[in-house]
Amino acid sequence: LAGYVEALASRLGLSIPDLTPKQVDMWQTRVSTHFGKAVGVTIGCILGMFPLLFFGGGEEDEKLEKKN
To answer: How far apart are CA 26 and CA 13, in angstroms?
Structure first.
């Protein structure tokens, strides 16, 4: 999905930084890249779990426990 995100970012006017190969190999660049990916996955997981707030499955489980 990274390609789609980059295409959307370029359509919105955000430019891809022109880094030299030496800059790409710097530890700061790698840490920033991995941190950005981790933040993106975390936000995606939180957004994906958001609909779970609207499910009320606990009531059915309580009724089954009372019957047994």
So the answer is: 26
